[in-house]
Amino acid sequence: SSKATVSVLNWNTKHDHTMFITTKNREEIMQYLFKEGVIVAENKKQKKHSALSVSNLEVIQLMRGFATRKLVKEQYAWRHYYYFLTDEGIKHLREVLFIPADIMPATMKKTASSVAPTGDDRRRQWRNEEGGEDRPRRQGGYGRGFKRDGEGEQAQVQAPAAPAAATAETQADEAW
Q1: Are 29 and 52 in contact (CB under 8 A)?
Q2: Is 101 in a helix, a strand, or coil?
Q3: Separation CA 122–CA 99 (nearest Å)
Q4: What is the pTM of this model?
Q5: 51-86 pLDDT, tens digit each
Q6: Residue 18 vs residues 8, 28, 43, 74, 87: alpha-carbon distances, Å
Q7: In this structure, what DSSP letter does residue 54 have?
């Protein structure tokens, strides 16, 4: 038979219901899961999955079965289910789909950005190019209108002198 069953427990009636997922759909879901390492399903069960030709309900139910066997880790946020493949899940899918050991899920592959220098390495490299730790530091950042003097004490910043015409106008207003 080309149908597989997934057991679904309905908590309202306490009866065991069985959902039939065709072997073609089940294999398509499992191949996608292995290829990407993660699968996302929107919580609109009647809607077709965005990347596969199966319904979201079939993806969710198959992944729930995988989650109970610890083959995937389930995360739910913003009306979407996220299923991440675990090491046991990788082993299981290799056996079921006959995948060789040298092929890995996309989440396990190293990318150029993952082997690129980290933020700390890039920062260290930039400091060395710019003169190391001796390079002058930026001033400011200690609050509005203050800057640090040489001894580390805070000193009030003097306001720039106003133009002469503005000063005469201000004095006339104050005298009034």
Answers
A1: yes
A2: coil
A3: 38
A4: 0.56
A5: 999 999 999 999 999 999 999 999 999 999 999 999
A6: 6, 20, 20, 21, 28
A7: S
